[in-house]
Amino acid sequence: IYEWRRSLSDNTLYGSCLKRVRAASTIGNVVGLLFFQGEADALDPKQYRKRTLLPTQWEDNFAVLVRYWRTDLDLPELPIVFAQIGTTTTPDKYPNWAIVQEQQQRVRLPFVAMITTDDLPLKDTVHFTIESYRILGKRFAEAYLDLLQEQQK
Fold first, then answer.
1. d(CA 100, CA 57)
2. Which of 6, 27, 85, 117 has the smallest set of CB atoms within 10 Å of its CB?
3. Which has more confidence, 83 or 49?
4. Residue 88 and residue 99 in contact, taking contact as beta carbons nearer than 8 Å
5. φ/ψ (deg, to 5) at 9
6. pTM beyond 0.90
7. Residue 53: CB partners within 8 Å, gap ≥ 6?
8. What is the DSSP code (8-state) at residue 94?
9. Is the separation of the CB atoms in 88 and 127 below 8 Å?
10. Number of DSSP helices (H) and strands (E) in the chain, helices first
């Protein structure tokens, strides 16, 4: 989540994402955002000393990220759906997995929803099978539609 901190440079995740969203908005309207991140925050910091890993601060950093997206896109009620990390077959590589999952579960923001992924099969240590991604797409869509209904209330 640290790598998603706000920076308008095209060489950052946030800046690059913002640039693409703005480019796409010239041919349509931005009506929502999907986000699927967290595995890296669960890595063992002893093995990845050069990376800034913030598993215990995921919830707070995500809230800041949501605020920046909405501000920078001038969409204060932008619906955002994010996926909670699911499972891993290499828990020794990801000792903070449960912490990140808990942090994600605690997110409570207006017009933000979380989908779960822990019941879906993996193709490797953290990535899903093609069929799992199809299911994830349906979950993202259902959660997004629920957020739209919530906004209309």
1. 9
2. 27
3. 83
4. no
5. -70, 140
6. yes
7. 2, 40, 41, 43, 45, 96
8. -
9. no
10. 4, 3
